[in-house]
Amino acid sequence: MPESNATASIHGSDRALGAPHAGDSASSGQSHGVDTALPLDEQTVTKTSDRTVDGEAVAPSLPDPEAGTGHEIELKLLVDPAQLAGFNTAAVIAAHARNKGARKHLKSVYYDTPKRVLWKNGFTLRVRQSGTRFVQTVKAQQSDDPLKRGEWEASVASLEPDVALAAALLPDELGETLTGTTLQAVFTADVHRHARLIDVPGAVLEIAFDSGVIKAGERSEIVSEIELELKSGSPAAIYEIALRLAEHGEIRPSIRSKSARGFDLAADRPPGADKPRRPDLDPTVSLDETFAIVLRGSLHHLLQALPAAEDGRNPEGVHQLRVALRRLRAALHIMRPLGTSTALDGLEADARWLAQNLSAARDLDVFLTKTLPEIADACSTVAGFDTLRGLAERQRDLAYRKLRIALADRRCTSFVLGLGAWTATRGWRNDVSPDQLGRLAGPAIDFAGHVLSERHQKALKRGRHFKKLPADRRHRLRLALKKLRYSIDFLLPLYGPGKPAKRYARSLSDLQEQLGHYNDMAVTADVIETLGTTSTDAAIAAAAITGWQAHAMAGVEDPLRDAWRSFTKTPTPWQPEEA
């Protein structure tokens, strides 16, 4: 596979934005970009608060996130154990490392209640030994920023946790639960770490080479990874260093923590894959800030789904990864009205390429876990379902092999890291006109109303004369509604959590669900065609599935028409006066 289309054109922006609209949540920090085509010592990854354009002071509308107290900003790079040591000689390390670094042997014990109350509430409690020192750490897992986690440390006397110290850092109710329950050692991590400091213009990072093992009872898992942790400066530097390391050898970006790996190992379960969280947007937020929030959330969703998709035991993994890619493409498409750019084109192409390598695995997952068992249970006298299941399982194995090859491809790595760099450096500023820069600095809600109205009207147009729409035009309507739905997920929070917004979102969701039944039938037909049902038994079972779905569709038409009428009559929350 070729290198990512995006990374050749990922440029950070040193273009300042105009003064934000009154009420905009602006501050005086300004990010200068990182041009990945240049050596790091020729780049600018710095901060400035005193910019001028045409002799006039400019107030940038976006502060860049900085490494700060109470937060850990890091990215992991998974590496083959046999290749890990070799990354110490990578050109970017040799050029920017302060010294040869320090080597440590880290023994960590992770604690929780018997019912895993801390983990279920998004916290971990760890005690780590390094030499004669013992450090207790409480970490908060929940964040829409793929690089950031809350972290609080304190020295303790031994590998046993100080419960009172930990409880003081937790929400009151959770802290009370902790003090009233006996903690258990859930798993341990025994890691040899070689850590070095990296100085680049505008940022200081720690690069840690970790090798070791995670153990939970009789189960164990190898640790072989590089951690890039921001000590000061712009998070963009993390992605830039990672892109340089990708030139040295095979790496896989990851945000899956050792704690997540350990808790999954202890429970003998596959990696989890969460649904995306809707962005929390203030009505006065700038368009530039909104793009950054939406893209960070999209990147986080993508990164957290990768391990589960590759593992394959949980069908939700590949499903959430495909959803993440669709949402990302929708987010990038929303940015199109501001202008075109090579970087944006490349990111869209890479997202499309990766999604194409996932589709067969997802379709076969649905067929094997939902479609086939439901119909087989209802048609117990029909022969051939076991034969058909065997054919589908073999095809699914091949589909997952294709998926894993794509995830291991350098193009995937470059795509993910390139997206992170483009987001962190606000690369979309580069290819827009001065007028559009002013638009970026203005309130997002003005832009959102136009986008949502346009997509709503497009859906209404495609659904005109709905009762008579043939299957191909209903499919086009479904695609328009999907784009509208993702736009709603991204932008409707600007209008608050009131009843009009909830009513509109629910109406759209109901319509999508009804239209989805038609798509399910088409996908099932495609899956059956790929199975090669040459045996009589398999052919009989395939015919039973086709007939069952065709019969079921007869009962879908009336609810579908009702859902369409309801949607067309539901007021749009961004233009209530025009509803």
How many distinct domains?
A: 2
Could you state the order of secondary-structure elements as H and E? EEEHEHEEEHHEEEHEHHHHHHHHHHHHH
Name of the CATH superfamily of the largest domain = Hypothetical Protein Pfu-838710-001
The helix count comes to: 18
Name the structural class: alpha+beta
Instruction: Please give the CATH architecture of the largest domain.
Output: Beta Barrel
What is the strand arrangement across the widest sheet? 3-7-6-5-4-8-9-10
> Which stretches are poorly predicted, pLDDT < 50 over at least 5 residues?
8-69
What's the number of extended β-strand segments?
A: 11
Question: How would you characterize the overall build of this protein?
Answer:
- The chain has helices spanning 91-96, 117-120, 163-167, 172-179, 236-248, 258-267, 287-311, 316-334, 342-356, 359-378, 385-408, 410-424, 434-441, 444-462, 471-491, 499-531, 536-553, 557-569, and strands at 51-53, 56-58, 71-78, 102-112, 123-130, 133-140, 148-156, 184-200, 203-216, 219-233, 252-254.
- With 579 residues, it is α+β, with helices and mostly antiparallel strands.
- The protein folds into 2 domains: 71-360 and 403-424, Beta Barrel (Hypothetical Protein Pfu-838710-001), CATH 2.40.320; 444-579, CHAD domain.
- The strands form 2 sheets. It has an 8-stranded antiparallel barrel with strand order 3-7-6-5-4-8-9-10. The protein has a two-stranded antiparallel sheet with strand order 1-2.
- It is globular.
- The chain starts with 50 loop residues before the first strand and ends in a 10-residue tail after the last helix.
- Residues 8-69 have low confidence and may be disordered.
